[in-house]
Amino acid sequence: MKKIIIAIDGYSSSGKSTMARRLAAEIGYRYIDSGAMYRAVTLYALDHGMIDAQGQPQTDAIIAALPNIDIDFKVLPDGSQRTMLNSVDVEDEIRRLRVSEAVSPVAAIAEVRHALVAKQQALGAGKGIVMDGRDIGTVVFPDAELKIFVDASAETRAMRRFKEMMDKGADVNYEDVLANVVHRDKIDTTRAESPLRRADDAISLDNSEMTLQEQHQWLVDQYKQAAQ
Ligand code: DC
Fold first, then answer.
1. Residues 111-149: tens digit of each pLDDT
2. Which of 44, 64, 183, 206 lies at 20 to 30 Å from 77 by C-alpha?
3. CA 2 to chain CA centroid, nearest Å
4. Do residues 131 and 140 touch, judged by C-beta distance below 8 A?
5. Residue 187 Cα: closest atom of ligand 1
């Protein structure tokens, strides 16, 4: 089997990260969650007063701060990964609602995207990587050997995220989570800079009615075909 790049794009909470992580573990590839990188930049901006009460980012201040924002991933002995922001483990912090609510406008800033795309391309230089996000098959790795576009209804996705947050003990209600999912879909698909869209050569997967095991098996089959 040849070493390839696997790009998995899709809407927020479509389950793409779960699929991507599990595939990478099974085939011995590195997994990169590109959304975590946008979340880490957003956390930095929030903690440095660069996002106002209405959720509007101070674009110039964030661009000026980019050289001071170092994002990395630490792999733990059990294979799980932690997102590191300037050497601090922010994995839990970046998943909170305050970051989810602020991240889309930050991810729409062209200079932020350019900086993170360059980092993502460097991470994939040696191939053998599974990366998930919104623009991996269209912008980051347009030549990826396997591109998947994952979709599911907004309600299905909101329910998944809601359960995930409840399991972590968060105090949230479903309507707020659904509103956040719909709002982010809109920003992600309508932004000027690399909006979320399916690459022409991506394979679509609607996983609304599939179990995790079914999705995994489907993805492994796609990988086997692409890497042979
Ligand atoms: O996948 P996620 O929910 O963790 O992504 C967080 C935000 O980052 C979301 O608003 C979309 C954005 N994002 C992006 O614009 N490009 C990527 N490659 C990954 C995420």
1. 999 999 999 999 999 999 999 999 999 999 999 999 999
2. 44
3. 25
4. yes
5. 10
Distances (CA, A) of 21 to 8, 87, 111, 173: 11, 22, 28, 27
The 10s digit of each residue's pLDDT in 195-227 is 899 999 999 999 988 999 999 999 999 999 999
pTM of the model: 0.91
Q: Which of 12, 62, 111, 120 to mutate to test the pocket of ligand 1 (most atoms within 8 A of CB)?
A: 12
* Residue position matching structure tokens 């396997």: 146
Residue type, 204: S
Assigned token pair, 175: 């309507």
CA of 61 to the centre of ligand 1 (A): 20
Q: What is the dihedral of CA 188, 192, 193, 198, to 10 degrees?
A: 50
Tokens of 135: 């623009």
Distance CA 89, CA 86 (A): 9
Nearest atom within ligand 1 for CA of residue 12 = 3
